[in-house]
Amino acid sequence: MRCAPFGLAVLASILSLAPRADAQVALPITEVGEGASLRVDGSLREWRDVRFLDVGEGSDASMRVALAYDGGGLYVGAEVRDERLIRTASPGTDEDAVVVTLAMPRGRGFDGVEIWLWAGETGRSAARVGVGGLGRPGNARGAQIVEGPSRGGYVVEAFIPWNAIPGSARWQEGRGSVRLRDVDSAARPEVESEPTFAAVDRAHLELLPTLAPSGGQTAAFESFLASRQLEGARPAHDLRGDVGGDAQPERVSIVDRFLVVTGPGWQEGRGFSFVQLPIAAAADVREPRLVDLTGDGKSELVVTLRQSDDRGSRDLWQVFSFATAQIVPAFAIETRKATGAGSVESAVQVRAGRRGQPATIEARSGRAQGLDASTLQEAPAADAEPILVPWGPVLSREYRWDGSRFARVSERPNPRYVDPATTARASTTATTTTSAAPATPPPPGVEDLLAAFRRERGLRDARPTFRVRANVAADAQEEEVVVYGRDLVVVGPGFRSGSGWFHFQIPAQAAGDVLDVRTAEITGDPRHEILMRVRQNIGDVRREVLLVFQFTPVGFPAILQREVAREQSGRRVENEVRAGNGTLEIRPGTARGWDASSWPWGDTPSTDGIAPPLLPWRDRAVTYGYSGGRLVAR
């Protein structure tokens, strides 16, 4: 932490050894829940559920302060302990004040904003609010402030509309601090003391503590973190935009390896949806942004994902859709491939359509370093649009939403393309002698691929916990679906040209929580889906969740998440699952120890997007059909 300048150089050098701000806790700010309110009346009675911070010590120049918010603006409540209030009729920065410093994101940096709260003196001056740049408070249109009496000081309570705070559109991605400015004399005003939550270095606002919203709708995001044992984790990327539901903006977050959606209109503001991204770490996510690609006024998420295995790495330009109130991978293009010999890359550009019309996605071949047609020999991607290489037949290709998918609409041929067959015939004609071509080594077998996977994952001696053979991806040949603990791997002679594998980490807390993995054809096409049954422990409650995944041209999305069993203290409800022949049916099954009068959860809906189990005394069997990229109840 860099400290604000003090008059004594010696003192400044000592204080410069204080810990940096990025080691501090976040600055809490509590949402005012639906139906609640904070009246700006100079009393803090309604602030009982808001977290207060202690800033400073003793009976002079210290305070208890809290921040809260709702859709309209920011609330500040402070109980100040001060032996003497220094205040004039036209307050400025050399008078007693509570100061909130906010670092609002702009581009890749931050803009500093300060909110100055000056308490009034009865019969002499009114309380005032000032908002502006650092150290430059100006008028705050629509702001409210009231001071009140307090033993040994005063109370100040204020409301500042978001539209009066510059840069507040992305305030939840911001940083901040709060301090008390205490001036010792009105005649010769000098700052006597200035206790602060975190010191402000104007040149390095990125060192301020992050803002930590809590309560209200934010509780849904906190519930997700708790469900994944990620309490305290901060999103690596936090976006806001209208992606589904009503016209209110949703919060689209990437935390750890998960993509999470919450918001006031998402699952009625109480729940969340999430998917696990096909990456190894959060650092493999690049350049996420929200953009309307389909022309329906709702944004899709566009993000680049880097994936790596023993052969090298690739970048996927991936589109996620939220239109069905679920997170669905809708489109993907390979934009980069790298091996030990070099790399090749292409570019993707989005051109916005006219109002109400879909955007155009253009992929264009780029450059290669160390790779050419002879050194990069692999089949085109089966799970994404293949990369356009500089030596390939296509220079650029355009895609557009046609109402059900992102379809190819045009392409430009590569004028420098040379057909390999033509080159081979010319070479044969020019050759006067022939020699036998070197023998092509046989492709690796399934067991060879599994052994290579185990070596990469450090599972050399592991034995499969589940293993099934079925046609789940690629061509009509069967693949092997093999599970080692929480690691699922798919291999096969026709999958990725028989020379690679697909890996997915099952979302379970421990290997023993993966209770079953099988396949069944439940969507009406020839390929099987993969069904997993996973156990989750939530306090003293144990539940079992059915997860259904499907290979698509653009990914491996979950098309159903449904709780099928719940157990507590020896009592249990378990549904019956029947899958196959193009359908999935879940029946209420049996109950042990619970009935309609003793079931403790009533009709309480789930908050994590996973529907609760069917109850034998109330519910009927549910049959699911495939529609819109997911399984829906018929």
Quick rundown:
This protein is mainly beta. Helix content is 6%, strand content 42%. The strands form 6 sheets. An 8-stranded antiparallel beta sheet has the order 18-19-20-21-22-23-24-25, with no helix packed on it. It has an 8-stranded antiparallel beta sheet with strand order 30-31-32-33-34-35-36-37, with no helix packed on it.
Q: Which key phrases capture this entry?
A:
single chain, mainly beta, 4 helices, globular, disordered N terminus
Distance between the termini: 59 Å
| Helical segment count | 4
Structural class comes to mainly beta
Strand order of the largest sheet: 18-19-20-21-22-23-24-25
Structural notes for this entry:
The protein has 634 residues and is mainly β. Helices cover 6% and strands 42% of the residues. The chain has 4 helices and 37 strands. The strands form 6 sheets. The protein has an 8-stranded antiparallel β-sheet, with no helix packed on it. It has an 8-stranded antiparallel β-sheet with strand order 30-31-32-33-34-35-36-37, with no helix packed on it. It is globular, with a radius of gyration of 30 Å.
